[in-house]
Amino acid sequence: MSVQTMPCPNRGDPAATEPLSDQQLLAMVRGGDVAAFGELFIRYRRVGGFVARTESNNPGDAADIVGEAFAAVLQSIIAGGGPVESFRPYLLTTIRRMAHRKNQTSARMVLTDSRTVDARAFAGDDHVLGTHESIILVRAFRELPRRWQDVLWYVDVEGLKPAQAGPLLGLTPNALSALAMRAREGLRQMYLQKHVGEPTIRSCAPYLRHFGRYVRNGLSGNAQAKIRRHTDQCTHCSAVLAELRELQAPMGANAMGQPALGDVLVRGD
């Protein structure tokens, strides 16, 4: 079932400038005005695509997942079920459920090992290296706390100001800004950690699993010192550490580095 994407103008005063609320649009759909669902589609297809890409093992499936989710929600509403007020949470829950179901039934994987990538997921076949880094960034993003994912999406992908994004998360602009800073640093650390890979030497494992935070000076003084002593004596870990330091150099204190989060998460729209 396809979802029409035609815009739905306000049905009241022609001079009105306030957009209809989700609740009003849902009531119109229930009343037989199926075209009103087009406005909901336009309003939430972008965030729906974001959720589908981050929840799916194969981001190439995102468009199908979003389309199926919107169609399922529309069918539910027409049948007398579905959301009455909270359309966005209902839709995103449906998308996550469908993505997880597809993950369970699909044998395709975005990344099978450090040498094989699905280049179609984010870029052309002539950009395999950039694609590999993009996939690592997405995988790192998926492991962040949900609240961190939300704030990074609103601020760094959609480009909302703290005053705009704050109410969406129940935060003041200052608290939103502080949370965004912590989330960005958490993403940097997780992104670096994803480059460490699985330890090949068992005795190195307790140290390697903290390298992402270590390179970013994110550990306590004692923990930093323990890893430093180990890398001074271990040639393997010393080599891994050198690679991470080179990788994180462009990040600095405030920059994410390449690839950019927003470009990766919205690519393919």
TrEMBL record:
Protein family per UniProt: Belongs to the sigma-70 factor family. ECF subfamily.
Record InterPro entries: Anti_sigma_zinc_sf, RNA_pol_sigma-70-like, RNA_pol_sigma-70_dom, RNA_pol_sigma_r2, RNA_pol_sigma_r3/r4-like, WH-like_DNA-bd_sf
GO biological process: DNA-templated transcription initiation
Keyword annotations: DNA-binding, Sigma factor, Transcription, Transcription regulation
Keyword ATP-binding recorded: no
Protein name: RNA polymerase sigma factor
GO MF, any single term: sigma factor activity
Superkingdom, natural source: Bacteria
Native species: Paenarthrobacter sp. AMU7
